[in-house]
Amino acid sequence: MADQKNLHFIFDDRFHPSSSISNVVGNSTFGEILHKRTKLSNKIKELLFEMTDIPVDNFYLIRDIADIENLRQTIKETSRHSIFVHFMSYAVIINEDHFLLALKKAMYIDTIMTIHQNDPLIYYFPEGSGYLNFLDHVSTRGNVFYPSNFEEESVLKPNDFVVDISKLQNFLQFFSGGFEARHFNALKGDLFTLTKTSSDRSKMRKEHDYYHLLPPEMKGWFVAPYNFTNNERVASYTMERLNIPDMALQWIHGAISPNDLATFLDKVFFFITHRPRRSVSKDSYIKSQNDLYYTKVLERINTLKQLPEYSRLHMLIETGTSYNSIDEVFADYNVLYNKYASYNQEFYEVIGHGDLCFSNILYDKSTNLMKFIDPKGAVQEEDLWVNPYYDLAKLSHSIFGNYDYINNEMFTVSLDSNCGFHLDIEIKELTTSQAVFRDKLEQYGIDIFIVRLFEASLFLSMLPLHIDNPRKVFAFVLNAIHIIEELKNNGK
């Protein structure tokens, strides 16, 4: 039996999206676009090196002519007993099993093959000389159609495992299907609908019923769920697939300018200021506020401390911050809460979303179309009512608190000159955009200190929910400490 050939995988990331797509992801190449917290270039690389059936000898990333020339020199020194796979960065894998099968079959080809006759997203080369000719073609002509088309017998199947996201419709469909949902076991759909299925049947019922309990004037803000089903194991509901990117995707890619944010906030604050409201007694207001911003936080911290991962987190807090434990962090938060949270002179509640962060807001900045997804849920009308600051704190933790950058792991933790840990967010300068949000709060007479105080509670209460990623949890701790210290220093 002949020895298995070596596999060399080339990820061609020389391509920038069209203007309609760059409106969503900024000036990134396709490989730099984040999907579910991972760059597309890293996603394919991780998939390749996880495969055991086909050992990948080398992964090459090319972004310009210099990279191509370096690759040419490497290939000249490579054994002829090799297979070369040239993969366009605007191709994304949608069926990993079929992708693996195609690579297995590629190990035995003896002629140049591709994935589609007239739209080659992937090329397969059985030896180095043919691939060098291809690189010569790319270097001199600047395009990748080589040859201009293929015969049908030159198409390697299966070829149904990728989608071309350089096409706007495909891009929007791919990313609109990427809703982050911690409790969901399955999210499936077609061109026009999405169906969510989960073993957390109670949560599914709440999400479905929330929409149908809303007053008519509120329903237009939300994507409507329907066809609720519930059996002994799982529950599900269906909703329209809207090929609209969420705000978090656009925000972390730097596609939202200060002017874009101002337009976005105009519409969000129209929702905020037109939510139904009802007066409540002072005692009722204080109780619900304490439940949300004190009791819930304390319960979540106690949950965190019971987890096996907490011992290491405790060590990091103790040795690398000015606090000795998470309890001390909460104690400082509690001092601020007790001192300032009672400043409110109006006692009322609103019908709110309950989780109005950027990832739950679908937004098309070219048309100003906005829809909300994944509300907190309700099984009776009383469940719709919430503290008026909660949705604002959720917005703040995306704009001031950099939640979406941390959640997508766009950060580093470093040691400062005093050997303390410092959180560095991998973002462009956001001061101007944050000032837009600050001005909007002031315009409507909303106390920014209270918004940020309640924002700090969000970062503390989310800690046990993300314990599957301890690095991210520590970043949330450092971020909460930063907010608390800032509030302590600035006061009201």
Automatic annotation (TrEMBL):
Organism from which the protein derives: Cohnella lubricantis
Domain of life of the native organism: Bacteria
InterPro entries in UniProt: Kinase-like_dom_sf
Name listed for the protein in its UniProt record: Capsular biosynthesis protein
